[in-house]
What we know:
Layout: E1 3-7, E2 10-13, E3 18-25, E4 33-39, E5 46-52, E6 58-59, E7 67-72, E8 77-82, E9 91-98, E10 106-107, E11 113-118
Parallel strand pairs: 2-11
Antiparallel strand pairs: 1-3, 3-8, 4-5, 4-9, 5-6, 7-8, 9-10, 9-11
Amino acid sequence: QVHLVESGGGLVQAGDSLRLSCAVSGRTYTSNAMGWFRQAPGKEREFVATMPWRGGSTIADSVKGRFTISRDNAKNTVYLQMNSLKPEDTAVYYCAVGRGIDVADYGNWGQGTQVTVSS
Length: 119
């Protein structure tokens, strides 16, 4: 069983940066990827970034150039570095295990961490 715990969210101003962490415990297969998603109030959960265990990454167009995904295998942790934050980035951010960019292809969701960006 895989257990994920997100942290690092908070209240920041537009233009600030945050780094979210996703601590992974349990067994994750190398064929899977780690993904970051977000859900704003009244909206559906949407893809943000994903990183297969074998390497490489895919970033959503809405955050490309501002957000990057990385991992530290020694710490079993995946990160989402968010720069130049905008009010529209306000959402609960989740990490999950799966593949691709479709929410439906991910599971073992963490509890989420709130990111609020003020203008």
